[in-house]
Model the fold of this input.
Amino acid sequence: MKRILTLLAVTALVLLLAGGVLADEKKADTKKLDGKSLYKTSCKVCHDEDSDAGEYTPMYLIIEQWDRFFDENYVDTHTGLAVSESDTTKVIDAITPAMLKAIRKFCVDGAADSEHPMTCG
Ligand code: HEC
Done:
């Protein structure tokens, strides 16, 4: 009998711990990604002033142009590009769909015809 109780207690403890871990993972998953920081680290590296690929900040395009870029041109224009000379990961693999969504929101929210046009300083 004592054994069964111990077993039950251990099982309950394991379940509790597992529940905690799962809850933490869920939190991390839904944590809001910061589009501005992501833009700086994932886009500005190639689109700063004087960059060969041309300077782009949110306010360089209007909302419609950003939408068209993300819907139609992003994959075409960025496929094959590596993140940097030292990191050969492809840009389109390095930027996950969730990251791209946050970056897109940052660009659209700061577009030239938005309420708060934004550079990426
Ligand atoms: C590794 C360098 C690199 C990274 C990182 C990068 N780009 Fe580019 N981007 C380029 C190059 C090169 C072009 C020009 C492609 C062409 O003209 O075919 C370009 C083109 C563009 C254009 C113009 C596309 C068009 O339709 O003419 C926009 C807008 C743009 N990038 C935005 C972004 C955004 C937003 C990000 C981040 C999600 C990003 N880029 C990340 C290199 C990069």
The CA atoms of residues 11 and 30 lie 29 Å apart. The chain has six helices and no strands.
